[in-house]
Structures are given as structure tokens and as C-alpha cells.
Amino acid sequence: MASMTEDQPLTATAKARLNLLHIYNTACSYLEKGEVKSAFTLFSQAAAHSHPLSCHNLGIMYERGYAGVVEKDMIQAMKMYSVAAERRFPESQYALACLLKNVMGEMDSAMELFIMAADQGHVSAAFNLGVVYESGSFNGPKDKESAVDYYKMAAEAGHAKAAVNLGVLLGGEDGEKWLAAAAKGGDGTACFNLSIALKEKGEVEKGLEYLEKASESKHVSACYNLAKEKIRKGELAEAEKLMNFAADEGDARAVKDSRKLSRIVRNDRIVKEREDKVRREMEECRLDEERRLVENKLRIQRAQEALEKEMGGGEGGEEEEEEEEGYGDNKNTRGKPTQTAIERVKAAVAARKLKARQEAEARK
């Protein structure tokens, strides 16, 4: 048996492949550093030998265009993508399919390439196939079963839009599962559609939670629907913000309703300002009344103190008895004189003075 202790020499083909790989990696390094011209030169050098990755990157550069280095050229981009696609490079198959569909309108050729790429696990290709089979767009075949299969392939690989479309297409509990999976990742469209499904099932509060999440991700229809909910709850200021956002994003319903809502909010603000003014005035009246009551109480107390002081200068006996008689029915109100008590005191003092004058006249 031959010994394997020594490394076998590389074949010319292997050396050529390694050299092309080295050129490709160097070109990528130049591109990362922003040295686009050097990268383009090296990609072109490797692409001349049909290196798939170099052809694909060169196709991207022609598709996008780089000022001062390469002009945008869709025909040249498709040529580069074609070279890599023929070597079963899925990214190039997908990129070429998109150009054929969107630029050239060649749907049949695009479908073949989408299928080739999807069969190799290309997620976006699978999603595009799902869209075409669901809608029959670009004169493509309408096939719900195929749409479900391709959407599922993309959704299982984490494609959020595929999960949303699959959820809507399936409907029911199966559809909710896919919508919930996409909503968990924060997809606004998933949250919006899930909110509708939950509301239809009668789970209104849970549906509102997902509607809130959808609006937080700036989903236009969600913002409009949530604005309507806020209006029903009387939260007009918050409703106005959501409605205006939806209107600014071009939602025709929001454009129409935002004008009405603005008038309602303006009128509501005027009413609230008037109510606040009335409350302030009522509070001021209440404070004024309290001040008047306190002042009256103080005047009464001062009058009582003055009368008691004046009465304290006379001689006992009958005067004290009369004083007691004057207060007889108000013993429990001492310290809290009423107007009747004061009048009695005044009458007692007058009677005492009259009696004193009479006695003085009698002695004469």
C-alpha cells in the first residue's frame, strides 16, 4: 500500500481555484475599506474566469452603480448574475429572477429561477413564490396549496412577512399560530392582523393589546383603528395624534376623519376651559363665603366680650339673676353666642339702667 505521509501536490485546477478565491477575498477587503475601484478591478479579473462569487458581486455593482467607477447597467448586471446562476449559486438565481420579473417582465424565466433558488433553501425566493402563487400576479399561476408550501418554507426560516401572509391565508387557529409567531418578533402587520382575528373571536381586550403593539411599530391601519378606539373612550388628545400620523402617511380614511376629529378636539378644549373657569369662580365664591362667616363669628365674639365686660361693672344680686335669666335658655351655647342671646343681654342691661334711675328718683 502506498504511503500517505507526504502531502499530495495540488493539481493545476485546484491551484487556479485557490488563486481565484484569493483574488475574490482581496476584492472584498478593498470593498469593505471603500476602495471600490480596486475591488471592481479584482472582481472583474476573477469573473473573467467565471468565478461565481465574483460574478455575483460584479452583478451587484452594475445593478447599483458606483459613481466614478461603474455606471448602472442592468443588462451587464443580468449577464454577471447569469454566469453565477448557471453554476447554481442561489443568490444570483434570486437576483436574476428579480430583474427578469421587475425590469424585463419575463415572468416565466423568473419563476424558473425562483424555484431553483427556493429548492436550495433561498428564503426570499420562497417568499416571492408564495406571493405569486397566492395572487397569480404577473400572469403567474394561482395555486393556494403551492402558496402555503412556499410561505411555510420561508416562515420556518424566520421570514416574518411570509409568516403573516401564511397566517392570513390559512385563517382560523392555524393562521393565528403563524401570526402570533411573527407578532412575537414585533412585526407590525402580524400584530395588526392578529388583533383583528382576536376581536372577531370576542377577545376584545387581548385584541386591543396587539393593536397597541402594531401602532407602536407605526403600522398605518393600526394607528387609524386605535384612534377610533381612543375616540370611543373619550381619549381625544391621544386619538388626534394617531389619526394625524395615519393621515400624514396617506391613509384616505384618516385624512377625512382627522378634519372632523380636529374640530371635536378644539370644541372639547373650549368646553374644558370654560368648565375650568367656572370651577375656579365657584372655588373663589366658596372661599369668600368662608371668609365672611369667619368675620361674622369674630364680630359676634367681640360684641359678646364687650357686653360681658360692661355687665361685669355692676352690683350682684338681681343683676346677676337677670343676667342668668337672659342666658337661661342658652347655657349650652355659652362661648357660641347667637343674635337672640345678644339682644337679651342688651335688654337686661337697659332694664337695669331703668331700674337704677327709678330708684334714684324715689330717694329724692
TrEMBL record:
<comment type="similarity">
    <text>Belongs to the sel-1 family.</text>
</comment>
<feature type="region of interest" description="Disordered">
    <location>
        <begin position="305"/>
        <end position="340"/>
    </location>
</feature>
<dbReference type="Pfam" id="PF08238">
    <property type="entry name" value="Sel1"/>
</dbReference>
<protein>
    <submittedName>
        <fullName>Uncharacterized protein</fullName>
    </submittedName>
</protein>
<dbReference type="InterPro" id="IPR006597">
    <property type="entry name" value="Sel1-like"/>
</dbReference>
<dbReference type="InterPro" id="IPR050767">
    <property type="entry name" value="Sel1_AlgK"/>
</dbReference>
<feature type="compositionally biased region" description="Acidic residues">
    <location>
        <begin position="316"/>
        <end position="327"/>
    </location>
</feature>
<dbReference type="InterPro" id="IPR011990">
    <property type="entry name" value="TPR-like_helical_dom_sf"/>
</dbReference>
